[in-house]
User: Fold Sporulation protein SpoOM from Thalassotalea euphylliae.
Amino acid sequence: MLKKLLASVGIGKATVDAILLSDSLRAGDDFDVEVVITGGDVAQELNAIELAVMAQAKTEADVGDNEITYNKSVVLQHWQQTLNVTVAPGEVITRQFTLTLHPETPATELFGQQISKVWLQTGLDIKNGIDGSDKDSLYIRPSATQLAVLDMVEHSGYTLFKVDIEAGGVRGQGFSSHLPCYQEYEFKPQDRSLFGARELEVTFVDNGSETGVLIEIDRAFLGDGYRSVSIPNHCTTINDVRPYLERLLS
Assistant:
């Protein structure tokens, strides 16, 4: 009886471990996961396995007269796999899943450097108990089209300064985002002339066949201006994307 009581509050409960069978990914890719469930001190009824792709996003809130910026975890995708099994003490149950990343999933690495946090959260829906959970980082590279756009921006006289994931959505000419957050690449001009751009921010919205590119340009004395274009995903080099971007970057 004591063991059942402890398991109901999370002590000696069944645990879950997710093993990613796919290495570096791109948004829109399929990836394989093996979920290993190990029984705790008592038998427990498992209703389902819960899996979610999550990201750390920057958001703002008003606190009194001040506006503060903080990071929060947001759910990008969620899956539930029904189990309805009883796991005995010490028993090991395994399940394999093939999941698909949303095409708008933010990238987490650029040229081997971590630029953001996206992970797979795995948990158990346990009858009359607290679920065990596991958290595994996902390594996601920008698409070839996105890399070509970023290269084009750098070749146009800008240097990448930082990358953020922002809570909320974006909209451009002919496209809009669907996830609860978006990724923003912030560039600074290499030649900071008095009336030139002080900052340039690039956001991507990929629908699988085209990549929407939203560019926000902050010009001295003129404020922010927004420009956008959709680029087919078969465009994967600077020369491919140049005709779409030259007007936006001028």
In short: The chain has a mean pLDDT of 88. Residues 144-249 form one domain. The chain is about 10% helix and 55% strand. Helices lie at 2-8, 144-155, 238-249.
